[in-house]
Design brief:
Blueprint lengths: L7 E6 L5 H14 L7 E6 L17 E3 L13 H16 L5 E4 L3 E3 L14 E3 L17 H10 L9 E2 L6 E2 L7 E4 L5 H10 L5 H9 L1 H5 L1 H13 L5 E3 L6 E2 L20 E3 L18 H10 L1
Parallel strand pairs: 1-2, 1-4, 2-3, 6-10, 11-12
Antiparallel strand pairs: 4-9, 5-12, 6-9, 7-8
């Protein structure tokens, strides 16, 4: 994989809110992503909430974009990610990129993430959700929230298959984590995600669910993504990433001992959720050279 392949790795950040996470990820990709360092790197910089907010310094390895987010969606949880990912996919298709890798800024990359490479016939590679939360359990009927989403996204029973959450090992209907996605932009999955989300997030019927449980609002974006993927892809066109990808360091204390890695270096990519909650930095022992690199990177 080289720059000539035009594969794109993209993420978004908001100046002054998660600048440090974005800066760490940018350095991390350059140092530890292997051949993925030779891809195109795109940063989508959300308009700063106030003047003087800290922004990422210029970096010749990254191309910067100013995304467009609908005014009505600006304050809705994670709506910015939905709209920006769709914009990135559009630009990637126009660039004839064979794949777009989208990741959240609270990501660590320990080694080359080869499983993100899409083989022929695969439209998307994505990890399961970490915990059940609002996921639809396979041993229970889907609730009204999921039924509304399935109806809107035109998901039928024959689209459903069983999968397992990463941390609590619950059998659920398909529900994916939106923090790490590798997709073929030619299929427009992320743009369909945006369109489905735009048609649902202000629906009065959906607002009723937000009032019942705030988690429905907080995680609507992932639920709609799951339904969109089910509608757009056959089962054999979806690659479930192994647990060494997108591993939740912030949920380590909720896992069985047998499911915990021995070293951080055993993982390929990991998530830490909150930069300021420093427990993630020592959640697992770390081998060199990543240990020294992370220590130095966090000082800057």
């Amino acid at each position: 994989m080289t720059k000539n392949s035009d594969t794109v790795i993209a993420f978004c950040y908001r100046p002054g809110e998660n600048t440090r996470e974005a800066a760490l990820l940018a350095k991390n990709l350059v140092r530890f992503s292997g051949h993925f360092n030779e891809c195109l790197h795109w940063i989508f910089e959300i308009p700063a909430p106030k003047a003087g907010s800290e922004v990422l310094p210029s970096n010749p390895n990254f191309i910067r974009f100013a995304p467009s987010i609908p005014t009505d969606a600006a304050r809705f949880p994670f709506a910015d990610k939905v709209f920006i990912a769709a914009e990135a996919e559009q630009l990637a298709e126009e660039s004839l990129a064979p794949q777009l890798v989208w990741m959240d800024t609270d990501t660590l990359v320990m080694k080359e993430p080869q499983a993100l490479i899409l083989k022929e016939g695969i439209k998307i590679a994505i990890p399961p959700v970490h915990i059940q939360n609002i996921s639809s359990r396979m041993d229970q009927a889907s609730d009204g929230f999921w039924q509304l989403i399935y109806s809107h996204c035109r998901v039928s029973k024959n689209h459903i298959f069983q999968m397992t959450t990463v941390v609590d090992k619950i059998q659920i209907r398909p529900h994916f984590n939106a923090g790490l996605i590798s997709a073929n932009p030619q299929f427009g999955i992320l743009r369909r995600w945006r369109d489905n989300f735009a048609g649902l997030y202000q629906d009065p019927r959906m607002v009723e669910f937000y009032e019942q449980d705030k988690r429905y609002k907080l995680y609507l974006h992932q639920a709609v993504l799951a339904a969109t993927i089910l509608n757009q892809c056959k089962r054999d066109e979806i690659k479930l990433l192994p647990n060494e990808y997108n591993f939740p360091l912030h949920l380590l204390d909720r896992m069985d001992e047998k499911d915990k890695p021995v070293w951080l270096n055993d993982l390929v990519t990991a998530r830490y959720d909150d930069f300021d909650q420093t427990g993630w930095q020592t959640a697992l022992p770390i081998k060199e050279p990543f240990k020294s690199w992370l220590t130095d990177a966090l000082k800057k």
